Amino acid sequence: MHSFNGLLKKDLKLGLPFLYTILLIMGLGMVTAIGFAGYYQSFVLVAILAISLCFAHLFFLPAFLLTSLNIEGKTQLWLHNPNSSIKLLLSKWIAGFLYSLGSLSLIFIVAVISIVNAGDFQLAFNQSDLFFMCLVILGMSIYFSSWIFFYWALYHSMKRIAWMNKIRWLLLILIWNGWNVAVYWFNRIPIIDALKRKSVISVDHTFTFEGNQHFFQASIERTDISIFTLLGYFITFIAVFLAASWLLEKKVEV
């Protein structure tokens, strides 16, 4: 436990520059938006930017993990670390999750304040809608984070095989496409399709938007979510995380 706490402290410290950069970018964006809002006497622009920054957090955790992994790759310390690969990856994931949650919570508060002060805008998009949207964004970000681990470990594992080393990116793309095709056909199996349909729940707070150069429209609609599908995402997350841990256990060469 003590060794894991040490790992976590190290990863939290390692991720501080990334967190500060994101906070600085968001801060500059919001200051600029507030300046324009004051000039045009409309707070809607601030609300839209704040909501957009909430959306952008879909990439926070994956980007944080990729940055942290690449830093580890430059030091080569993982090749000699006595801790298990699961602990190494879990430490990074917890550090990234905490920073992502903190940053998202901060911009959520700003977005709520912006919506409240944006007049009629809150009639179309209120605080509960935004909260649910942030939960979905966080969930998707967590799911994608496991694939970052897997592809990073797989990419560097292939470096040891001469013929793979030259076409690593192509192989990663083929694996991703192959996985999506496999999932597509798996979902078309009659018994799987039936399980998905039987485990459906209706949700009111689904954010959708459409627009072009002439108009923009956002709305909250009811949608159906399959518990079976969510379970599939969870199992995939665990399986991909363990696969990445197994590859790292082989002491990948970076």
In short:
With 254 residues, the chain is mainly α. It has helices spanning 2-14, 16-40, 44-56, 60-75, 85-116, 121-124, 127-157, 162-165, 168-187, 190-198, 227-249; strands at residues 200-211, 216-226. It has 11 helices and 2 strands.
Supply Rg: 21 Å
**Content of β-strand:** 5-15%
Shape: globular
Mean pLDDT reading: 82
Helix content: over 70%
Q: Name the poorly predicted regions.
A: 211-217
Main β sheet profile: 2 strands, antiparallel
Helix/strand/pairing category: mainly alpha
Written account of the structure:
- The structure is a single chain.
- The protein is mainly alpha-helical.
- Helix content is 75%, strand content 9%.
- It has eleven helices and two strands.
- Strands 1-2 form a two-stranded antiparallel ribbon.
- β1 and β2 form a beta hairpin.
- The longest helix has 32 residues, at 85-116.
- The model is unreliable at 211-217 (pLDDT under 50).
